[in-house]
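[step 3/7] fold_predict: job queued, chain A
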Amino acid sequence: MSWAQVILGKIFHFTDQSATQKEMSFFEHLEELRKSIIKALLGILVGSALCIVYADFIVQELLLNPLQAVALKTQVLSPYGIVLLYMETILICGLIISMPYTIYCLWSFVAPGLLPSERRYISRIVFFTSFCFFAGVAFGYFVLLPAALKFFSTFGTQNINLNIALDQYISFMLAMLLGAGLVFELPMISFFLTKMGVLTPAFMRKYRRHAIIIIFIISAIVTPTPDIVTQSLLAMPMLILYEISILICKFSQKKNTSQPKEST
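[step 4/7] structure written:
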């Protein structure tokens, strides 16, 4: 049974008794999905509650530090701007730190439809998926953001003072971090698509030139800035990740062919 059949079976009730111990109806699967979503939302709320305790440190030290490093001044343009700024920071940072649990909830929903040999690797899958996400967030914070701010601080004339609206800066920064984290999931996505039989190394090599164009389009969409510098900085690791994904795809395909088929 392929991974595609397993996932479709999990949703549309196509799995057999070897994959699940009990047949479930479509609405029962929807109920499981609802419970998984609620658990993930509760995890985000717990993460956000933790961020409330350290809200001042997150805003003043983590989020404003890159801005202060390039000597840019900030200002709040509305009386409720700081309140909205803190609320947005708490929610998005709660989403970021709770991402491993969110991924675990997703795989807990899919797990009953997997074969026993596949179910054993869920903890590893959650670990590597979370690792890729946090690596992307770190890349966005330590590489993308400083490069973008440095570019903005040196662009223009000396007769114009660059005073940044604090709420817009926080939205820009958090969107960049989330976008970078999601982009770094490319190797894991390639791994799963290969497991499902959708993706092959030959296909990825054949359409490499098309992928390069798509990567630059994605970097332009994900990056909340119109400058070519930040977009190129995000596109370069995506190109490297694409080549890594080809190797992962090749390794996963070899592993699939080397494993004996399990009886259904």
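[step 5/7] annotate
Strands lie at 73-75, 163-165.
Residues 122-154 form the longest helix (33 residues).
exit 0
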